[in-house]
Specification:
By secondary structure, the protein is an alpha/beta fold. The protein has two domains: about 5-10 and about 255-380, Alpha-Beta Complex (Aspartate Aminotransferase, domain 1), CATH 3.90.1150; about 15-250, Aspartate Aminotransferase, domain 2. It contains twelve helices and twelve strands. α4 (about 100-110) links the parallel β3 and β4. α3 packs parallel to α4 (about 100-110), α5 runs parallel beside α6 (about 160-170) and α9 crosses α12 (about 360-380). The chain binds pyridoxal-5'-phosphate. Pyridoxal-5'-phosphate binds near residues 70, 71, 100, 201 and 210. Pyridoxal-5'-phosphate binds near residues 147, 151, 178 and 201.
């Protein structure tokens, strides 16, 4: 059976170009970038070229980009790093209740260490307003961490306004841009952001590599200690093939962004238009300010896990919202934080597209989904 992959917010296929770009650095050019000989030099060059490419894609300087093992590490580093840096200023952090678990679990741990955490609830569409943030800022606030685009419902946050609000009070601003980069244009210096997290595997790069942007002259303390790689801030022999693959994927993604935005927005809107014809189906997230490739829904009298199973049987690979919420007893935390009650939050379906999806695939989904929902509801009413 042909399979349709519409879970691109969970991970993506590595692009052909990114894959080819990685290959030489496994065998022929396998050197350690810290070595002085020619093997080391060619690896070092690949690493620095990759850094330039990633920097350019978000309007940063190359010495503001640090390679990490992915989005989770970048979020951990940004948040814990600021705590260390600002330990004399205060212990209050503001974030949102709809963040990825890499942010939420990190904040929970800090709370156990005496930090005070404010998690802003969102409006019904998953948004947070600058006024809301303004009201939460205190004398002892050291960091605001709010994601650029939500991974469950696709809502885009007004990061420029949120960042300006934080800065007005002398507070640093971090954003988890894992779902946003290559999907919406990003210019870190225009936005004014201090710290920004990225991950390669959400944008057709390889798994296990990402980056943290740290705006100069901000100087975070090191995350790892050891051999002093990444200017002493992130020790450990660099993942050269990963960085090379990430750079190519980021560059491809940013170059193709305008065209791909048009094409996947129209696929997304076709899905939304047709799926909303199902009785008791509702769009979640902001109807306008949303990721171009993300369509997310809830359905009355439907259990997510059962629906995802049925879709899978039909060859359609989608998810409830986040990769880890599938088995959770309560509905995804994101929908709860947006004000949905538990029952409806447990019926979420996320269809996340990439440039590789086709209109035919959308037609197949639109064809299969309505009778599936009807059948599941009938079976529920015995
Ligand atoms: C996937 C994801 C992460 C984690 O990135 P990894 O590279 O898998 O560690 C963080 N934040 C968001 C919004 C994500 O979607």
């Amino acid at each position: 059976m042909e399979r349709i992959y519409v879970d691109n917010s969970a991970t993506t296929a590595v692009s052909e170009k990114a894959f080819s770009a990685m290959l030489p650095y496994f065998r022929e050019k396998f050197g350690n970038p810290s070595a002085i000989h020619s093997y080391g030099q060619e690896a070092k060059k690949a690493l620095e070229d990759s850094r330039n490419t990633v920097a350019k894609a978000i309007g940063a300087y190359n010495n503001e980009i640090y390679f990490t093992s992915g989005g989770t590490e970048s979020n951990n580093w940004a948040i814990n790093g600021v705590c260390q840096l600002k330990k004399d200023k205060g212990k209050h952090i503001i974030s949102s209740a709809v963040e990825h678990s890499a942010v939420l679990r990190t904040l929970e741990k800090l709370e156990l260490r005496g930090y005070s955490i404010t998690l802003l609830k969102t409006d019904k569409n998953g948004g947070i307003s600058p006024e809301q943030l303004q009201n939460a800022i205190r004398e002892d606030t050291i960091l605001v961490s709010i994601m650029m685009a939500n991974n469950v419902v696709g809502t885009l946050m007004p990061v420029k306004e949120l960042c300006d609000t934080a800065h007005k009070h002398g507070v640093l601003f971090h954003t988890d841009a894992v779902q946003a980069i290559t999907h919406i244009p990003i210019d870190v210096h225009y936005l004014g952001i201090d710290l920004l997290s990225m991950s390669a595997h959400k944008l057709h790069g390889p798994k296990g590599v990402g980056a943290l942007f740290i705006r100069l002259p901000l100087h975070l303390p090191p995350y790892h200690t050891g051999g002093g790689q990444e200017k002493g801030l992130r020790s450990g022999t660099e993942n050269v093939p990963g960085a090379a693959g990430m750079a190519v994927a980021v560059e491809e993604g940013v170059t193709a962004l305008p065209a791909v935005t048009n094409s996947i927005t129209s696929l997304r809107d076709k899905l939304i238009e047709n799926i909303l014809k199902i009785p008791g189906a509702y769009l979640t997230g902001d109807p306008v300010e949303r990721l171009p490739g993300l369509a997310s829904f809830v359905f009355e009298n439907i259990e997510s896990a059962l629906l995802i199973n049925e879709l899978n049987e039909a060859g359609i690979c989608a998810s409830p919202g986040s990769a880890c919420s599938a088995s959770a007893k309560e509905g995804p935390h994101v929908l709860s934080a947006m004000g949905y009650d538990d029952d409806i939050a447990r019926s979420a379906l996320r269809i996340s597209l990439s440039a590789y999806n086709t209109e035919q695939e959308m037609n197949y989904i639109i064809d299969k989904l309505p009778p599936m929902v009807a059948e599941l509801r009938k079976n529920r009413l015995y």
